[in-house]
Amino acid sequence: MTLKWTDFEIPLLEALEKLNGSGKTSDIYPVVEEIMKLNRDAHPKEY
Length: 47
Fold this sequence. Notes:
This protein is mainly α. The chain is 55% helix and 0% strand. The protein has helices at residues 5-18, 25-36.
């Protein structure tokens, strides 16, 4: 599974919306992962 930056565009915007428009990267990434249903154990090379 290869992800491109465009695959993250909408989930990133959705995550920012959930976080009231801003946040630290460390707060945003977990929300994006949840929205995209990413599993770090299943795809370790993507991380």
